[in-house]
């Protein structure tokens, strides 16, 4: 019997019983529309066929729960011809994880960046989320972010069946990334073979408390799943739904930056300003997934599936903004009493400080629609074919509403003491202040423009920035595969895929003003809320209110920014863009299998060709006023790949993979939004501009991987993974020659009769790259592999070391976003007789993290190393008991209250210091 036929005929009792035990739609792996990446339930164990079921039932130990999910993940790794990591559904559903981002961040070589305490984006092999692709059931997805990176907290863990991370590509893997591809998989009801009805609920508590008025410290989530088959198992239906209403709290210190200064002849860095908030988030998320399968004949399977997510992230942000060491707005540093340590002014005093009390709202609402149709023909003559259609759409509104208050308008000291004297102490947790003013007294705090940000006599009492994003994608794919009997060549696949995507950003911005020309207005008492406590910063309580209520009452008014006409707000228009992409992918892949004396050689070789047509529509800014223009490019990428696996009978597996890999650039980097003019410092003049680059090409690399894997029984593995990527094309901001011949002449061009249309553009550009290499150690060991006395105990996890060197457009070595030299994660567990307990930890070293800057624009800063520890204890009532089917659990997240910290030029120059507190969750799942 051929190797793969033997595998497919084996029966995994452990995975089967795990299927029955799981709640909330949490099931083992199933076949997906991704063609060669299909995995059937029978492929979870490489053992020989069970010929005597009764005898087998007497000898086998039924493994369920977390241990069964680990066995399934180990089998996925062992049987795949690619280099993969995976997490199965029970792992997602019962680890202390709010989303799939938390779970896959525990896999070897992967880690996450936290947002408000949640893991929302994942880095693979030291590259940030911009360098990997995320699929849902093998289909590309639109995103709730500004770019291609999928924010994984959009997908509830309860509706996900399995997540597979491909670290090496194949020709038939459509939608691959530069460093990896994440495929999220949902339930396929015909392949479960049983009816499943399950419900679950949990409550959550944040020990940091309800920091803002109107916020909560308690939350909940509920979920349900239904799976069944009808008409002699030819029709299958699955439905899964999850609803979350949970709070997240954040105490934050944030610095504007650090100013270079001299104090008594000493060179030192001095905090330049502070914008620190207490943030309370209320996350409400509804996720619904449904699948309908019909098998009208044994050879044909039709599948329709859909996913919907409604995401509402409502944040109240209250704090004080303080102009300090940059010397702006009249603030002065008093050098009389100060201390300096390691080049940083660690204590001192500022005089004449006029603070801005901030009562801001940040609200993100997103609707994500995804679905598709798949028709799979599996003939008896070795021919297999499928057609797949996928659709994805995301509609997102992201409102940032700022409201300012203070003791007087534009530094006008009216006797109320608008200027403060503030002492400070800077350290490894940021800066703590000691002000001379009480910022919680409503008799002294007014709605106004304390620092004159409105630029004159008209006060700007706030700002409204609503970013409207629409993202739509259609995908069509067809594939034909022919299998051969015997011989080195097992099968040949040929496929075609067409993807069209349009993503647009429309900014809607307005000034927040005071009505009737007022410069300051008292806050009506009926709108005052409980003061917000900033004692952790030394600032005490501050006046608090909801600016949305003041706008609704007419106390504050919105003055829209003019978006058209001679007074167009160019800074608003420059943020808008529409990007269109049409991708035609052709691929050919040969799959090989050759039995040897001591094992078997399997793998694939193939080539993928991608034709990209990209266009960007946006504004340019000549003298006559803003004009719309469309520019773009058309190019091919040819991506050969090969994966070979030598599987020995001794349970050693040796793998080698080589491929040409790409990742398309960030969408906002390809926007057309260019301002330009004449630089008269050059004789004869030269046109210079800045903005996006609609001609930008992908990141490209040549990669090779080598794996050594040793398997123990059905659930243990130790794997050493070595990899190297020669990065041929990277994307950095730079200055390059640009043809302005299609643009209207810039202002003043008449004075330069010989002005060349070839000028320069400051924008993202493809440059020479560098290299990335490293090693990963992955371990999953159930201890009963070595001794029956240790049954139920085990460990799983991994460690990775990555080294990189990338050069920017000027040839200077720089850092890759999301890159961490060390990533370590692990889980120690015990699971036996219904009892289960787990402790999980993940560590990542310093990395370049993504943050939200002024006006919602992304900025990057160095984030310090962090270690996150989670734990769970639970009990599953056993078969035959009165409460059979019920599972109870208690979870703890971030048990050491690990902060998230970013720094400036030096490690002791703290920019962000964020505390999320610990979270505790208690819940149950019940299957009928």
UniProtKB/TrEMBL annotation:
Cellular component GO terms held in the UniProt record: cell outer membrane
Residue span(s) of domain TonB-dependent receptor plug: 80-180
Chain coiled-coil ranges: none
Pfam families in the record: Plug
Keywords, alphabetical: Cell outer membrane, Membrane, Receptor, Signal, Transmembrane, Transmembrane beta strand, Transport
Gene3D superfamilies, per the entry: TonB-dependent receptor, beta-barrel domain, TonB-dependent receptor, plug domain
Disordered: annotated segments: 33-53
CDD domains on file: ligand_gated_channel
Cellular compartments annotated: Cell outer membrane
PANTHER family: PLUG DOMAIN-CONTAINING PROTEIN, TONB-DEPENDENT RECEPTOR-LIKE BETA-BARREL DOMAIN-CONTAINING PROTEIN
The protein's name: TonB-dependent receptor
Taxonomic source organism: Qipengyuania pelagi
């Amino acid at each position: 019997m051929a190797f793969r036929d033997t595998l497919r005929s084996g029966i995994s009792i452990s995975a089967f019983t795990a299927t029955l035990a799981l709640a909330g739609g949490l099931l083992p792996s199933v076949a997906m529309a991704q063609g060669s990446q299909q995995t059937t339930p029978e492929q979870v164990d490489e053992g020989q066929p069970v010929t005597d079921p009764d005898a087998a039932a007497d000898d086998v130990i039924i493994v369920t729960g977390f241990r069964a999910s680990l066995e399934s993940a180990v089998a996925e790794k062992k049987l795949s011809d690619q280099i993969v990591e995976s997490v199965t559904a029970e792992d997602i559903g019962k680890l202390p994880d709010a989303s799939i981002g938390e779970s896959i961040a525990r896999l070897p070589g992967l880690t996450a960046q936290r947002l408000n305490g949640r893991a929302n984006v994942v880095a693979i092999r030291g590259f940030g989320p911009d360098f990997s692709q995320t699929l849902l059931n093998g289909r590309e997805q639109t995103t709730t972010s500004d770019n291609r990176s999928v924010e994984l907290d959009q997908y509830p863990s309860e509706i996900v069946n399995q997540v597979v991370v491909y670290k090496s590509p194949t020709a038939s893997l459509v939608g691959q990334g530069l460093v990896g591809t994440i495929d999220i998989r949902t339930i396929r009801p015909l392949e479960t073979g049983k009816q499943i009805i399950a419900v679950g609920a949990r409550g959550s508590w944040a020990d940091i408390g309800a920091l803002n008025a109107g916020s909560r410290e308690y939350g909940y989530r509920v979920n349900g799943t239904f799976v069944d088959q009808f008409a002699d198992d030819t029709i299958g239906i699955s439905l899964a739904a999850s609803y979350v209403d949970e709070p997240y709290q954040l105490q934050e210190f944030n610095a504007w930056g650090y100013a270079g200064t001299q104090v008594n002849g000493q060179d030192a860095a001095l905090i330049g300003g502070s914008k620190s908030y207490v943030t309370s988030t209320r996350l409400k998320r509804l996720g619904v997934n449904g699948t309908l399968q019909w098998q009208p004949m044994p050879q044909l399977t039709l599948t329709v599936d859909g996913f919907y997510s409604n995401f509402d992230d409502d944040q109240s942000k209250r704090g004080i903004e303080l102009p300090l060491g940059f010397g702006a707005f009249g603030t002065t540093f008093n050098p009389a009493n100060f201390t300096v340590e390691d080049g940083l002014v660690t204590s001192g005093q500022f005089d004449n400080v006029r603070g801005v009390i901030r009562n801001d709202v940040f609200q993100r609402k997103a609707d994500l629609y995804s679905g598709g149709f798949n028709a799979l023909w599996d003939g008896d003559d070795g021919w297999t074919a499928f057609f797949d259609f996928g659709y994805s759409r995301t509609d997102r509104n992201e409102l940032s509403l700022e409201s300012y208050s203070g003791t007087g308008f534009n530094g006008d000291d009216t006797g109320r003491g608008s200027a403060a004297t503030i002492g400070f102490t800077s350290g490894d947790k940021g800066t703590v202040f000691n002000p001379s003013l009480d910022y919680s007294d409503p008799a002294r705090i007014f709605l106004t423009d304390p620092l004159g940000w409105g630029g004159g006599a008209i006060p700007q009492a706030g700002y409204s920035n609503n970013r409207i994003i629409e993202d739509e994608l259609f995908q069509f794919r067809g594939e034909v595969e022919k299998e051969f009997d015997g011989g080195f060549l097992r099968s040949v696949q040929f496929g075609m895929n067409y993807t069209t995507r349009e993503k647009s950003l429309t900014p809607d911005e307005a000034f927040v003003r005071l009505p009737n020309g007022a410069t300051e207005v008292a806050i009506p008492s009926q709108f005052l809320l409980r003061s917000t406590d900033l004692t952790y910063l030394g600032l005490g309580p501050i006046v608090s209110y909801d600016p949305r209520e003041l706008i609704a009452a007419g106390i504050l008014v919105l003055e829209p920014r003019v978006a058209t006409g001679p007074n167009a707000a160019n800074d608003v228009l420059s943020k808008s863009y529409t990007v269109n992409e049409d991708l035609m992918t052709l691929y050919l892949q040969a799959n090989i299998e050759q039995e040897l004396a001591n094992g078997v050689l399997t793998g694939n070789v193939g080539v993928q060709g991608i034709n990209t047509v990209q266009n960007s529509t946006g504004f340019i800014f000549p003298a006559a006023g803003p004009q719309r223009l469309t520019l773009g490019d058309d190019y091919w990428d040819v991506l050969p790949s090969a994966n070979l696996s030598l599987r020995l009978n001794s349970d050693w597996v040796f793998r080698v993979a080589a491929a040409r890999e790409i990742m398309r650039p960030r969408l906002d980097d390809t926007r057309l939004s260019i301002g330009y003019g004449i630089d008269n410092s050059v004789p004869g003049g030269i046109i210079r501009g800045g903005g996006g680059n609609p001609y930008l090409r992908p990141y490209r690399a040549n990669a090779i991987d080598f794996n050594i894997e040793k398997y123990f029984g059905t659930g243990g593995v130790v794997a050493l993974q070595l990899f190297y990527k020669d990065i041929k094309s990277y994307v950095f901001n730079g200055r390059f020659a640009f043809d302005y011949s299609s643009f209207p002449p810039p202002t003043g061009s008449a004075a330069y009769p010989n002005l060349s249309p070839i000028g320069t553009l400051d924008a993202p550009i493809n440059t020479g790259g560098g290299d990335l290499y490293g090693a990963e150690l992955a371990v999953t060991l159930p201890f009963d592999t070595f001794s029956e006395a240790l049954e139920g105990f085990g460990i799983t996890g991994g460690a990775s070391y990555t080294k990189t060197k990338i050069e920017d457009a000027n040839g200077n070595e720089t850092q890759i976003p999301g890159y961490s030299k060390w990533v370590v994660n692990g889980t120690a567990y015990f699971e036996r007789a219904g009892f289960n307990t787990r402790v999980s930890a993940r560590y990542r070293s310093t990395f370049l993290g993504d943050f939200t800057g002024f006006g919602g624009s992304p900025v990057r800063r160095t984030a310090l190393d962090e270690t996150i520890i989670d734990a769970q204890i639970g009990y599953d009532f056993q078969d035959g008991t009165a409460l059979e089917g019920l599972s109870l659990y208690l979870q703890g997240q971030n048990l050491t209250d690990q902060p998230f910290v970013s720094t400036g030029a030096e490690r002791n120059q703290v920019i962000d210091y964020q505390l999320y507190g610990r979270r505790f969750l208690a819940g149950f799942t019940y299957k009928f």
